[in-house]
Write a structure and sequence with these properties.
CATH class of the largest domain in chain B: Mainly Alpha
Oligomer: heterotrimer
CATH architecture of the largest domain in chain B: Orthogonal Bundle
Chains: A mainly alpha, B mainly alpha, C alpha/beta
Largest interface: A-B, 90 and 95 residues
Number of strands of chain C: 14
Strand content of chain C: 5-15%
CATH topology of the largest domain in chain C: D-Maltodextrin-Binding Protein, domain 2
Helix content of chain C: 40-55%
CATH superfamily of the largest domain in chain C: Periplasmic binding protein-like II
Structural class of chain B: mainly alpha
Number of strands of chain B: 0
CATH architecture of the largest domain in chain C: 3-Layer(aba) Sandwich
Number of helices of chain B: 13
Largest sheet of chain C: 7 strands, mixed
Number of helices of chain C: 18
CATH class of the largest domain in chain C: Alpha Beta
Radius of gyration of chain B: 24 Å
Strand content of chain B: under 5%
CATH superfamily of the largest domain in chain B: MetI-like
Structural class of chain C: alpha/beta
Helix content of chain B: over 70%
Distance between the termini of chain C: 51 Å
Chain lengths: 294, 275, 427
Amino acid sequence: MIKRNLQTRYPNWFLGPAIFLFGFLFVIPTLTSFYYSLTDWNINRRVITFVGLKNFKELFADIKFRATLSNTLIYSFSVTFARNFLGLLFAIMLNTAFLKGRNLFRVIVFLPYIIAPVVIGYLFTAIYHPVNGILNQTLTFFGLGFLAKDWLNDPSIALFSTIMTDVWRTTGFSMVIYLAGLQAIPHEYYESSDIDGANGFKKLIHITLPLLAPSITVNVVLALIGTMKVFVMILVLTNGGPGYATEVINTYIMSMFSLGLYGSGTAANIILSILIVIIGLPVLLILKKREVEL
Amino acid sequence: MTNKRTITYQTIIYVVCILLSVIVLVPFIMMFVNSFKGIRESALFRISLPKKPTLTNYKTVLSKLYFWRGMRNSLILSISVTLLVNFTGAMAAFVIQRKNGILCKWTYYALFAGIIIPVSIIPTIQLMMQTRIHNTYIGLILFYTAVNLPFTVFLLTGFMKTIPKEIDEAAMIEGCGPFRMFVQLIIPLLKTPLVTSTIVTITAVWNDFSAPFYLISDSKKWPIVISVYNFVSQYYTDWGTVFAFMTLVLLPVIIVYGFLQRYIIAGLTTGAVKG
Amino acid sequence: MKKVFAFTVFLLMAATLLFAGGAAEVTTPKKPSSLTVVIPNTTMQEPLERIFAQFTAETGIKVEIQALPAGEEYGRLLQTRFATKDYPDVFTMDPGIKQYTKFGVDRLHEMTGDPLFDNVLDASLNFQLYKGKLYGAPWGGTGTYGVYYNKDVFKALGVGTPKNYNDFLSILKKAKSAGYIPIYEAAKSEWPLQVFSLIAWPSFVDPEIGDEGVAKLEVNELRLNEIASLRDVFSRYVALRDMGLFQDGYQAGTYEEQMEFLATGKAAVAFQISNFIPSLIAKFGEDYVTEKIGWFPLPSDTDEGIAMLTPAHQLLVPSGGKNIPYAMDLVRFMTKPEMQQIYFEYNTGIPVYKGVTKELLPYEKEVLAFDQRGKAKINIQNRLSSSFTDFPKILQNLLITSNVTEALNRMDENYRKTGNARALPGF
């Protein structure tokens, strides 16, 4: 009797719309992508033939794609590190001091996160302009003219410049998460360590960081996943150039798509998925574990 | 002595905060002041008041049909996606959390994977062409719903745990059907996470570039973000007009953010922590 | 559980029926209230607006211009629109019959025998022929790529146009020591980088491989990385950079600055396409430009070189369009001499329709003179069905690595890959 009631109270068809929508435009394309990546599918082929791992072999033989892979990883790791390091630093500073305009500051640094990356990309092409850009102007103004660079067109620093743009965009977001985490730490922990005579640095290492661990893992892994998928920021800032200096996987997929090479493009997409899963799987496990605690 | 140290420490922090705020705001200020300058002056990107302030740039932008179209399309898209995501997501989350069937479990796992795995864009385009929804609003709305659903379900499932099952039982004794119970009882209780999900979804859809870039080839259906892209590639020599366009695009976003900053920041960050 | 599956299947089926139903309608051409014309967003729109206004006044049919991002993106967007049967009524496209194979001839409206072609000059007409049939109407004028130079600078240096490649180099070096930028390269804008190699093709590569060589390339019997003269062209390009003949910070060079520097005499020469002349005129006025800017082909080792011609663009009509008769009316209207006249008020080029009176610019007369002496060749890109895909990026990278072999191999690989993707015979 109770079992029957349970059935009617929570009918399976409630899942229907979600399964349909998600299954239709996410699961089906994801599954078929494995098949397509093994074919010579392209814009002019009306008949698709199976070619095995040819696309993958060609990708790894392509110097452009190899540059793409390393650029994506460098971009992802650097942005993740910088925005978390800075975000945590600012959050700790903000948390320890009694500050009047704290909320205003929070609102300001969070602002870039809600702005479309396309717009941010264009604003920074102006900022990085080698002659008139504010960055070089400011450096010259402070007598640091030797640091002025052609930020987006010098192949040795173009990737760095795109990384800094994303750090500028997302540090506020990481900071706010850390700030929330810090404020959740009960004061008693610090009070008891005050009695023990611990200094600020010791408190940071022994109390703050361990208690902040959940925020850190989530923040880091989300940043990694997000940055691996970077696309429009690069497209707008450098279009992958100069040469292949800032080409990332998603811009590579776009160029494959523009050329109508769908099979190769899909294969590149699969490589991206594999990379992200390798890095994203740990989070999944961590989150699962935390869920039990809830 | 300690007091003195605290004061210097506070001063340092104030200085750092002000410096950071300046770094964050400078690009926006540059955009704003230069949007009132002529073609030659604006190309210098100076943060200075315009010598001869002009509204021509704004007139040019506002006279473009695609500016208004872009804004309208973005509104239509983000609102309909949000409604669809919230409603279907809540339905799924409700059953997934309350029940322990195999189907629920696997749906949940599949959705979870959807948070991490990137979209396979080319097969998606192919599928949409085959089903004739490529290059349509419907197609884009369904696509966004599929992509944003996992997060919402995840968020709502977590929250459902805090709603006691006794509520459902009480309703059932009164002879309430499952759908009515869901709409009248459960949805009001899910208000908090639904606000979060709404903020996350609207931001994601409004700012997204790649989906319409790949899925919409008719310029009349482009959301504002793509209009910005197309506009800049056309007018990139005339920075004053470009800045005016971007100012107009950002203005509503910044105004909404100004009023709702508390909810938006909380929504996006709790969203991130949970997701 | 079963219920859910049944439900999903039902929804899927319903959706399929719904979408399939929309396609079955039969098209009966009745007078449309408006026609859409797709153009790249780099096209000058005023002449089109004027022409379309007259068309509307005459027929009552409005014409809507849709400007899409230019470059490879443009072709891609149009191809997806074709794939989704979202056809524009008329669209403009780069010259060459390869555009037909790109979209597939069965998906383009055949224009063979249309009276509008009676008015097209013979050379241009032949260029449009694909297996004896016509699918595109020429639009605009014949242009040229080449070395554009500032006459004042050359006068100040006391030099004329170069007699051969060595002469060209010595002029550039002279310009450098006199404090001018010898060559302005717009590396940031990417596409202008191709111009050097493309104008070098008629002067250096064509003499080696001849028309037979090009015919072999067309069917993939000759590899690009086996052409010695092409390797030589790339080496010469890198050498120009290594001799310090590009401006400082050329990686940041933009097309706009290139125009500005050439016109104001800061730079001596620029490798450019003739389309940049109307932009220059818009900025500096026609008199200024005709007075200051000259043109010459890239000289070969022995003589002044071969001029390179680019055919006119073309108007295409998708065969799946709903308003084909009216779209063709529009095409005929646009290509009438009076309308061409309007076009040439804003654009340069040598007219391809008879009856269009246009005072040629000095450089156009020179190009024409080269052509009449048999010293002109059509852009190699327009003679081949496959494409030099990603070419600007390859050259950008060549300038970074100076690795000629790598650049050639990539060019060859992309050429064959594209041919294969287009299912061209031989690939």
